[in-house]
Amino acid sequence: MRLLHTSDWHLGRAFHRVNLLGAQAEFIGHLVATAREREVDAVVVSGDVYDRAVPPLAAVELFDDALPRLADLGVPTVMISGTHDSARRLGVGAGLIDRAGIHLRTDPAAAGTPVVLADAHGDVAFYGLPYLEPALVKDEFGVERPSHEAVLAAAMDRVRADLAARAPGTRSVVLAHAFVTGGETSDSERDITVGGVASVPAGVFDGVDYVALGHLHGCQTLTERVRYSGSPLAYSFSEADHRKSMWLVDLAADGAVPAERVDCPVPRPRARRRGTLEDLLADPGLARREDAWVEAALTDAVRPADPMARLTERFPHALSPAFAPERAPADPGGSYAGRLADRDDQQVAEDFVAHVRGSGPDDDERAVLREAFDAVRADTAVREVAR
Questions:
Q1: Which of 134, 269, 309, 319 keeps 20 to 30 A from 363, CA to CA?
Q2: Are residues 199 and 88 part of one domain?
Q3: Structural domain containing residue 52
């Protein structure tokens, strides 16, 4: 059985205020075309279909467009809810949609009830484990201490119990949305730390043929049978070097799971660069980045004038400029009180300006600061006399 594993669509998400719905629609078209051209038998979507619990209307319309396109291909789709989805909203109409071959699994209580598909070699049981918030599902799974590992282990116990009761040779696929130990994170995933521990060991999923993970945005292989597909688009500059893709998995009759990566369309490359403004504007090696979304960390000792306007002259799609001046580190042994000792209010304020801007105030700015402090002192004196 040939599976197409994807996750973390985050429909409705923007990239530094850049609308990505067009790029997300292009991905959906690519997904449908891949399913058709590569003769896929099932699509699995491992959570975070939407970017937030109440998605914008345009994102809902895109999702509503994707489902019938997959159903028209006759390709069954199994989908779970993730940390960003509202499980209840995503699961509305699941019973009816199920008849069209779109299987939404958003209820933790149904973790041990699979979607069963068949190929020439027998049945394949697909178990959908939506994101399990420990505090909310601990009673359902009968765990004493709510933790990610405890609730996932309990859910997997149900999976293994159901699988053991099925005909010998039944193969199995688990969809889960979790942070599994060994996975590499990026800046755009939601923190799911509970009690200081967010990750679960891959061994929790022992006993099944393939585990289709969602949550982390980088495509990665944790074991031969446990993989993240990653997000189809880069949603932060920390993903600038990611190769965005889906997994095409051939589940063999003996349970072997050879897999191939299928690249996703790239609407525009991302680039992170660091240097002074003048260096970034003059570097001939950056010519190939002029059409990219660029994050520039400016290392100028003094904040340059109009940095964004100047950056966009060369990099029209520059986003999120940051000021990161390279300065000598402060004395780590000096306390804050020690640094302020014997310094009056005017000097402290001037030091603050120098710290933030990279250079101290000029004569006119010093005069403004002096007038401000004089006004405060005069007002304080009047209040004291009034008492």
A1: 309
A2: yes
A3: 2-263
